[in-house]
Known about the structure:
6 helices; binds zinc ion; elongated; 166 residues; alpha+beta; two-stranded antiparallel sheet
Amino acid sequence: MNKREPSLNILAFLPSKAYNIFIAVIAKYTKLGEMQMNWLRRFMMGRYGTDQLSMALIILSLLFTWIARLANLPLLTLIGYVPLGLCIYRMLSKDISKRSMENYRFAMLMSPIYSKFKKAQLRFMDAKTHRYFKCPNCRTKLRVPKHKGKIIITCPKCKTEFTKRT
Ligand SMILES: [Zn+2]
């Protein structure tokens, strides 16, 4: 995979669905009628809407608010409004290409973190079914299925045999 390309998963991560949810949440909590909903849709037309960066900003804002409440730091609550404000500004922006570029840069930045997270997730899933051992001779990492009892493992690299409980 080309390292300079952001992970496609990240770019395809539900921005349009998030936008629909956003509209639905607004409709639910403000009890908008059909006319106001149409107005809202018209108002949002030609505007950028949500993307991954905006969602990250919302999460950041919630995180600030949450920490502020836990640590009793009212100033942090105020700081938490900054990413929220940025998010709203980006959603309502009509400079689509500029906002897309920001999101692209953000995805590029997050791509290695995201793939690390994905790898950790896979390793966690794998830990349920497999165990890892190091060959006592050449330190090669060996992956062995779990729950097979005591087995003799042969290192594929140096052919050393050793016994392990799996
Ligand atoms: Zn070995």
